[in-house]
Amino acid sequence: MFRLHVANATPLPPVEPVLVPVTKIPVPKGYPFNGWTEPQKQLATKLKSEIQDEFIHLTGKPLAGEEEWALSDETIARYCKASKFDAAKSLAMITKTLQWRRDFRPTEIKPEDVEMEARDGKMFYSGFDRMGRPILHFRNSQLSKNPDRYLRFIVFMVENGLAICQKGAMQITIVVEAEGISPFSIQSPMLYVKFLDILSSHYVETLGSLLLVDPSWYIPVIYNLVSGLIDPVTKAKINFILTKKKESKVEQVGAGDTGGWNKGLAEFVALDQIPTFNKGTFEFEYVHELCWSMFLERIGKA
Question: Please, which residues have CB within 8 angstroms of residue 69's CB and are 6 or more apart in sequence?
Fold first, then answer.
């Protein structure tokens, strides 16, 4: 009797996350003030001048690079847009953020301070949406045993994820694996409210879209409980994505003040940019050592 012996196949190397866009988007002439009226441009110039007088009123130890950050064209443009070009409001918003940055100190969060939260792949960057914005994936994964560290991890990912953005697309898209989420598989809803408040107050005009894929029954419950605490501009960027027929009722979610319900991800993101575990076609599994080292190298913190 003959036996067929097959040599052990060499295991394939893990698939790398996509951290560099395949397609470069064109940078508009005059970016980031492209399309602005002359009065709007004058407001930006005035805001730059006025901000410099606010530093003496801040408390706490100055943060390295804070003036460079505050006076950059991108920061000025973000806050002008967020305030709807209201001069006084723009100045108040950016001053509030400068004080928050001194208190929270996001630029001083070290990778080793938050790496424990990254190990199970509960949050990582890979892929770009149709607007060329990097995608931050939230997985329905293990609960953190340290909510404060988890919040700092989220802030670390948003703060540093902007380094992945290509010029002309200085926003991120968040895609959440929302299927199967229950009261036992999610952090306190108030932690996410706190994060959304930080995002809307101190990372203005940074969120492009927030996509909740196939939300479980618990997502509408949470949303109805906390929606009053979420900034209206942020609400409008929340989109509920259905990739299969579900019995969820739109009216239960109060989708009128959000981006609403959408059939599938394709409108926002090419499916080859989304891992298969979240209804995409990208054959990808998070391997911490590879993905974390590539991310740190991409943001200049390796």
Answer: 75, 101
Residue 239 phi, psi dihedral angles, 5° rounding: -125, 130
Model pLDDT, residue 138:
95
CATH fold of 111-298, please?
Phosphatidylinositol Transfer Protein Sec14p (3.40.525)
Q: Is residue 289 within 8 Å of 296, Cβ to Cβ?
A: no
Number of neighbours of residue 40 by Cβ within 10 angstroms: 14
Reported as a single tens digit per residue, the pLDDT across 86-108 is 999 999 999 999 999 999 999 99
Cis preceding-peptide flag for 32 (omega within 30 of 0): yes
pTM of the predicted structure, to 2 decimals: 0.91
Q: What residue ranges do the domains of the chain occupy?
A: 38-106, 111-298
Task: Give me the residues of the chain with pLDDT under 50, please.
Answer: 1, 247, 249-251
CB 269 within 8 A of CB 279: no
Instruction: Please report where in the chains the tokens 């100055």 appear, as a residue.
Output: 62
